[in-house]
Design a protein that fits this description.
Chain lengths: ~110, ~450
């Protein structure tokens, strides 16, 4: 596949989800920026939320990602299916950590 | 979604957006660009048909030729992503997902003649339109697709689809696909009854679609928790369900497991919509009449009268009689070297899918350019076709094969013989983007 061929497929795949991508970027950036202005770094103390919510997101994603594709975890069958599902769920778990960790930091700071 | 060009350069805004969205993701993978050098020619190239094949080759030739005049002939204003219609008819997609405008995809430099070809006159290098207008060409590419012959089933009319008479058909149109979904819902809400699913006695496009419709309907019936109240039967004129032996056996076994009665060598002959009765001719036996609550009609398919009556078609006694005559590897007509084919219209085993068109377009472009330059035709079509065989709503198998039913898997890590969620996600999310990239001539 050529360079622009690959880009074209990526573009049409992302097109229906541009709003979600933008929303996720905002949800990621807003707490990061605000917290960093108040001394936050990745090594800062988080809180209960950043400890338990990302794993919860991971576990929920295992069920919700297939549902979001109008399928079900019951049809996750091959090793490729499991790799894709676990990979997507880990990604969402990490994303959740990036969102919840600075939020917890800000809460702790307030308290 | 018309392309918008920035006033100061020839790169479209969409291409820039594609670059920004995609570069970070695929940059490292994308260094395999293989653009073809433009070939100078003054040839008038006429493309008959603005479906997937016609649009795809129009875009490719626009990029790879300089000085050519390209004309495309078709009356259609709308372009449909037809591989999505099984999802519409299964209640998974809404209609809007499959509809675009032909003008969204055609290059601006292509001359679009809104007409239908009534006659091919290859001896005089011209086609005659239904209006009587003749269009002369130096090179002709036939991408006229196929015709759905509902008229060959007595009593059948596309107007009956979704009218509460139990008739559905995923092939007829986008509205018919949606109406088929309505008809299936109506049958399910009755709580019992018989559904008859069919294959036609001719070659057909997307040969997996009748099976997919059966599997998704079975899924919906099983979801009611009262599967045993419904009778599902599948009729095959040839005794086969699928061309590739492995998948033929797989579907037979699955039908058996899911309680589908198979009636081999039965061909749908007539429909009495008011009485909800279907008449079948049975090989070696008497006609049979079946009552139904839902009937999925798959019509016989042909290349269309204009082509069938022309010297460009396979003649009686030859394989694929009535379909366009091409060398199945070079896609060139053996009798008229300036006539080429792409897509469903061609007479060859299987190959009436969008995935086939993707391969046809590559081979055709390469051979077409070689021919213009007086070089030998070196690109060979390997018969590639593909069908993500949906076996239930949420799972599918990635069926890819070529000549002689040889499996040609594109992804070494996807087992073509196993049902998979990943393949379902590809079907539901990725193949439409890939199709659009194909229309643009990018893949």
């Amino acid at each position: 596949m050529t360079f622009f061929g690959t880009l074209t497929v990526v573009w049409y795949s992302a097109l229906p989800w541009l709003w979600l991508i933008a929303l996720m970027v905002i949800i990621f950036l807003a707490p990061q920026v605000i917290a960093r202005m108040k001394g936050y770094s990745f090594g800062s103390q988080g809180g209960m939320g950043s400890k338990y919510l990302p794993p919860l997101v991971f576990v929920l994603a295992l069920f919700l990602v297939p549902m979001q594709t109008q399928s079900s975890i019951a049809y996750v069958n091959t090793w490729v299916d499991w790799m894709n599902l676990i990979g997507a769920s880990i990604g969402l778990g990490i994303y959740a950590w990036f969102v919840f960790h600075p939020i917890c930091y800000l809460r702790n700071r307030k308290a | 979604m018309p392309k918008k060009y920035l006033p100061f350069e020839s790169v479209s805004r969409r291409d820039l957006l594609k670059f920004s969205v995609g570069a970070g993701v695929v940059g490292p993978l994308a260094l395999t660009a293989g653009s073809v050098k433009a070939v100078n020619t003054k040839a008038h190239i006429v493309i008959v048909g603005a479906g997937a094949g016609g649009i795809s080759i129009a875009n490719r030739l626009t990029n790879s030729l300089q000085g050519a005049k390209i004309t495309i002939i078709d009356t259609r204003e709308k372009h449909y992503y037809q591989p999505g219609w099984t999802l519409v008819a299964s209640g998974v997609w809404n209609q809007a997902k499959t509809e675009t405008q032909v003008s969204d995809w055609l290059p601006k430099s292509v001359n679009w003649v809104k007409g239908m070809v009534a006659e091919y006159d290859p001896d005089n290098n011209q086609v005659i339109l239904e209006t009587g207008q003749s269009v002369a060409y130096d090179q002709l590419i036939i991408a006229s697709g196929l015709q759905l012959r509902y008229d060959l089933i007595e009593g059948m009319d596309v107007g009956l689809i979704g009218q509460g008479k139990g008739i559905g058909s995923v092939y007829a149109s986008l509205d018919a696909a949606a109406a088929t979904n309505t008809e299936i819902k109506r049958w399910i809400s009755k709580g019992s009854g018989t559904g008859l699913f069919n294959l036609p006695p001719t070659a057909l496009k997307c040969a997996g679609a009748p099976l997919k419709m059966t599997f998704t309907t079975l899924h919906r019936l099983e979801d009611t928790g009262r599967r045993d109240d419904f009778n599902v039967e599948f009729m095959t004129p040839s005794g086969k369900l699928f061309g590739v032996p492995f998948y033929n056996d797989f579907v037979k076994q699955r039908f058996s497991d899911q309680g589908v009665t198979r009636n081999d060598f039965w061909t749908l002959k007539a429909v009495d919509a008011d009485a909800k009765k279907a008449t079948y001719s049975v090989k070696g036996g008497e006609d049979q009449v079946k009552d139904y609550d839902f009937l999925h009609v798959v019509p016989p398919m042909t290349a269309g009268a204009a082509l069938e009556n022309s010297p460009l078609a396979f003649q009686p006694g030859e394989s694929f009689t009535g379909w366009m005559k091409v060398d199945r590897e070079t896609l060139q007509n053996p009798d008229y070297p300036n006539v080429w084919g792409i897509g469903d219209v061609m007479g060859m085993p299987s190959n009436k899918t969008a995935a086939s068109v993707k391969m046809h377009a590559k081979v055709l472009e390469e051979n077409f350019l070689a021919s213009l330059q007086g070089k030998p035709l070196t690109a060979k079509h390997n018969g590639y076709t593909s069908c993500p065989l949906i076996t239930g709503i949420g799972k599918a198998m990635l069926v890819e094969f070529g000549w002689d039913s040889k499996l040609l898997p594109s992804f070494s890590f996807i087992d073509p013989k196993k049902e998979s969620w990943t393949v379902w996600v590809m079907k539901e999310r990725m193949l439409r983007p890939a199709y659009y990239a194909m229309l643009e001539g990018k893949i």
